[in-house]
Amino acid sequence: MDIWKRDDEAKWLPCPVCHQPKMLKYNSETVLKSFPAYCKKCRRERIINFDARIIK
To answer: Are the C-beta atoms of residues 50 and 28 closer than 8 Å to each other?
Structure first.
């Protein structure tokens, strides 16, 4: 089962600290509230709020 819609391209959210380009994968319907995101490169955890519906 494919969780990504065929017409919806997956994108990557960069790390807010080190700007690593591939920290979290998201699509146009992704909404994160108080999500603990961990970056493997800088080894830091940040609480992020993200709403892909706002980004165009």
So the answer is: no
Q: For residue 50, give the DSSP letter.
A: E
Joined tokens for residue 10: 């997956």
Torsion 46-51-55-56 (CA) sign:
positive
* Strand, coil or helix: 35: strand
Neighbouring residues of 50: CB distance < 8 A, sequence distance ≥ 6: 13, 26, 30, 31, 32, 35
Query: Model's pTM, two decimal places?
Result: 0.69
8 Å CB contact between 23 and 39: yes
User: From the DSSP assignment, how many helices (H) and strands (E) are in the chain?
Assistant: 0, 4
pLDDT in tens, 10-23: 899 999 899 999 98
